[in-house]
Design brief:
It is a single chain. The protein is mainly alpha-helical. It is 59% helix and 0% strand. It contains 19 helices and no strands. α14 packs antiparallel against α15, α15 packs parallel to α17 and α17 runs parallel beside α19.
């Protein structure tokens, strides 16, 4: 395609970009039909894209070509139509990659700006092919750029234009793959470490409703990924489960901080609604974990693939230890609300750890858990989880977590039929015998007490 550059130079910016998109479509179609493996766009074509669509000049002395706002809108409409009219998904994906895969050069900022506007428009007008391509892009791109795209969508549909939330809500039905990747990106973006990194209430409502309507939504990327594929370095997690768990566990502390700020300012931030939504989200995430044993067994991955990484759990517990220490220092006298919030945090952590281990999503030993939770305050439920055995939802032949699979036992043969015995005369009941000693009280629960009769994992 390098020979068309001279024909593009005299054209205005919009006409040149439109003409290049037309030739790019033909070029990729021919490449796919030729069966070249792997199909890859050459460097000269990428240079043309940077010069005539992203407007990054190759020559420092060349004038910078700029589009007006109207021309940029027209280009976005042309691109939407181009992807919508192309019926072959392979061609669409290759074209999207040629336009928006990051190359590590000065054109990447222009790429991100154009990509953000294109995906935002695709959400607004329901262009499913673009959303599907964007889902693949989110799966393969460095997480720093993924959360930038997510931030633009949240700003466009939850902050800048009031009442536009229902438009973003529709991506659940339009493109579940994109919706799943969007949830993963926003849970990575909003880590609840500050007011600015706390998810907007409207976004939280959307995510809760999506997962309640379809719990398998957050597993779509995992379900559609080949078993042999590996995640690119520093890409988003395979599922948003880790980010969602972080939201649910840290929410009581984050929204208690916001509540104190609102009381100081004399404002209201809808904290009760947030508490209710995070409670519903926590339940929904636990229900997603309950789906995993059958899914992992079907793929032959139970006990082999950790969807919840131990490193993220360790980072979460370290963060919780710091936040709870800060809450204690800022609270001169321990109030019932502060204690209840801290215990709710630890209760949710304990529930998430137990269900994640039992479902095969978290692969670790009890000793590992006790080590990373050693600095957390005491909580009865967490103490039981750290001391108790792993419970399995599968049959008894499921291999234990963090252990190598064992061969299933051979079935036990049936016992031979016993001979029929004559009727037995019942004995005369014995007289009630008095107890020889006084009854001892029940053994109280003691923190840190080991359970020697339970498996050591």
């Amino acid at each position: 395609m390098g020979d068309i550059r001279q024909s593009l130079l005299p054209r205005d910016v919009l006409s040149a970009a439109k003409e290049l998109l037309y030739h790019l479509d033909i070029y990729i179609c021919n490449m796919v039909q030729s069966g070249r493996q792997p199909p890859q766009v050459d460097s000269k074509t990428l240079d043309l894209i940077e010069e005539f669509i992203l407007h990054t000049p190759k020559d420092r002395n060349a004038p910078v070509r700029r589009m007006s706002a109207l021309q940029e809108l027209q280009l976005l409409e042309i691109m939407c139509s181009c992807f919508q009219e192309q019926s072959r998904d392979t061609v669409r994906q290759l074209m999207f990659s040629a336009l928006f895969n990051l190359q590590g050069n000065q054109a990447d900022e222009s790429r991100m700006a154009l990509l953000s506007k294109l995906v935002s428009m695709a959400v607004a007008v329901g262009r499913v092919p673009i959303l599907e391509c964007a889902a693949t892009w989110l799966q393969r791109t460095h997480r720093v750029y993924c959360i930038r795209l997510a931030q633009v969508l949240v700003d466009d549909y939850c902050s800048m234009v009031p009442g536009s939330g229902p438009t973003l809500q529709n991506i659940h039905s339009a493109s579940p793959r994109f919706c799943c990747q969007f949830i993963t990106a926003v849970t990575t973006l909003y880590d609840l470490s500050s007011d600015e990194l706390t998810p907007p209430l409207e976004l939280l409502q959307m995510i809760v409703s999506w997962i309640q309507d379809d719990p398998r939504l957050v597993l779509i990327t995992f379900l559609n990924s080949p078993l042999s594929s590996s995640q690119p370095i520093s890409s988003l997690d395979l599922t948003p489960l880790g980010g969602l768990i972080r939201w649910c566990i840290k929410a009581p502390l984050a929204y208690r901080r916001d509540k104190k700020q609102a009381a100081t300012d004399g404002s209201s931030n809808g904290e009760p609604d947030a508490a209710r939504l995070f409670s519903a989200l926590h339940l929904s995430v636990l229900q997603v974990f309950m789906l995993l044993p059958n899914i992992l067994n079907e793929k032959g991955l139970f006990g082999r693939l950790a969807l919840l990484q131990m490193e993220s759990v360790a980072a979460l517990t370290s963060d919780l230890s710091r936040l709870l220490d800060q809450a204690d220092k800022h609270t001169h006298t321990a109030t019932s609300d502060a204690h209840a919030a801290s215990q709710l945090v630890l209760d949710r952590l304990a529930q998430a750890l137990q269900v994640a281990m039992a479902s095969g999503a978290l692969l670790c030993s009890r000793e590992d858990l006790r080590a990373i939770c050693s600095r957390l305050p005491h909580n009865n439920l967490l103490q039981l989880v750290l001391s108790g055995p792993v419970m399995y939802y599968n049959n008894i032949h499921t291999p234990p977590l963090a252990y190598s699979p064992h061969a299933a036992h051979s079935p036990i043969p049936a016992h031979p039929t016993l001979p029929t015995l004559p009727p037995h005369t019942p004995h005369t009941p014995l007289a009630t015998h008095p107890a020889p000693h006084a009854q001892y009280p029940a053994q109280p629960f003691m923190t840190g007490m080991p359970f020697p009769f339970r498996p050591g994992h």
